[in-house]
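Anyone else keep sequences and structure tokens together like this?

Example one:
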Amino acid sequence: MIFILTALGVICAVATQILFKWYTSPWHILVFAGILLAWLIIWQLIYWVGLFLWSLTVDKKKESDKPSKFYKWIFVESVRMALFFLNVHVHTEGTEKLPKPGERFLVVGNHLSNYDPMSVMYVLRKHMLIFVSKPENFNIPLTGAIMRKTGFMAIDRDNVKNALVTINKAADYIKNDETSVFIFPEGTRNRTDAPLLEFKNGAFKIATKAECPVVIVAISGTEFVKKRIPRRSDVYVKIVDVVPAQKVTELKTAGLSEHAYKLIYDNITHGKENVKES
């Protein structure tokens, strides 16, 4: 999307300069640069304002019938632009371990901040992916609407029966080859000094029910993004392991949870702001 908006800006800038014959000015290069900048800003405003106005028409309480590739694309492109303007640089490692695009799997990772889903979605942008998220996130202006239309699922962790419905639905999505699913086994954002919160074994029932691979992700650096804006932030997303479906069946939920916890614990930076690039 950022390339589309840039191309529109260039076309409009060229058309404006030709229309008003500003190319005859001795300062035509500077004039063109100013016009181009203006059009780039205008198209960004058109995109974000238009997206916001659209979001006001979305019922954020109504779950989507099925995941949407179109809205997932909108989500990814919006994330790409947001990371660019927030000066967030995402570094990845281990992407060669990922299943091929089109294959379905469960993704689990640690949860440090609201920038975790953005970073993971950017890294896994070639894969159809939705998140299991807490209900409050769907009330976030603009973001909540895109999440809902993409097919993200809310989970009520205070109600075991309702949570199980979400777990089963997520498993069905994977089993029916509709989408891969991401869930944070910690259940909430880690605001403590501990490197990791205790994992909820129930999160791994999605994989055991769907009999699918589990992608284990270690995220570092997202907890510092907010306080560093507009300075550069470096985020590290490491694909630690991909547990094949057969091993998922053997380990079961408790074994999977223990395996993922150990791998993530060993591969995060434990709150160190100045981490080295992989």
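And example two:
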Amino acid sequence: MKPVIIILIAFVLLIPIPVLAASHTISTSTQQSTYENGDNVVITGNISNYDSSSGGFLTYFIRSPINELVTIGQVTPSSDGSFQYSFTASGPYWSSSGNYVAESHFDEVSSETIIVYTIGSAPEPELTSTSTAPSTSTSTTTQPTTSTTTSTPESTTEPEPEELGIASFVDKTKDPQHYVDRYNNEPSYKKWFDDNFPQYDSIEQAVGLELTKKIPSWIKNVFGLYAQDQISEDELLNAIKYLIDEGIMVVE
């Protein structure tokens, strides 16, 4: 009997016990209780049990009160699992007051945060009036002379605009997209760039990225979420509609 018991114990010990991976939860919040037209909306959050070595992106969707897709994007969480993304509440997709929804997706979990939005009224620019004193001009009459001179107009050529090249702050060992992501997701970084490098038309020009109308590489995550039944077919169609409206996807 003892040999049988020993064999059973050894058999049980040899059975591999599955190790369950730590599950994630996402917490998100807004920095203000309400927002108006033109406000910068900042969403902050944290992913529990986040492992920075495994990488991964957080994808977010912003939806209107009637469930229309307003914007989509993606950010990389910090090593401690915290993240932040921002956008401006203005444009045709912010045409009605109500509760907008910020939906954050990571791995197979998601979180929703309500954005209370009112259209309000954008501040009107101050009108400044400048008055100039009328200048007194004196006219003198000169007698015409009998001699005439013919002058040949000089040919002038417009100077070609000087190429700006890559901005001085760019570290060429880094991926230029790193700077674009910071510009799009960090309001303080965006203000720093706009204030100090007004000669550039865009952050992409400053870091040497060509502005091309193409589908972002991370858009595959949207279709991945659809494949995992985390978003509906209507939501996927709304995402495609957004790409068309923004000119990223052209349908002939």
